[in-house]
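Example (one chain per record):
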Amino acid sequence: MLCTTVRKESECVFMKKDGCSFNGGSCSPVVEKCEGCSKTTDFNSEKYCISFPDPTAKWKNGNCNLATHIKVEIESSAQKLNPLKASKRGH
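Predicted structure:
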């Protein structure tokens, strides 16, 4: 349904016939850590996340999994060899 509270005229899964069903009745503005994310949009001179209504909760336990401005580095470790198989290959 279309939002009628904060993000007017945009789709929202929390909107019901009797209003916003999200905790508190409306979305929360983005936090400082969200600056630079492509999922933030201006509504009524405030920035809001278009993917999640409470950005503070997404950053509570580390990085937000929806953030587009954070690059996650994956460590590429050397492949572990089984010592028994390695000794058989040597012969």
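Caption: Residues 56 and 62 are 11 Å apart (CA to CA).
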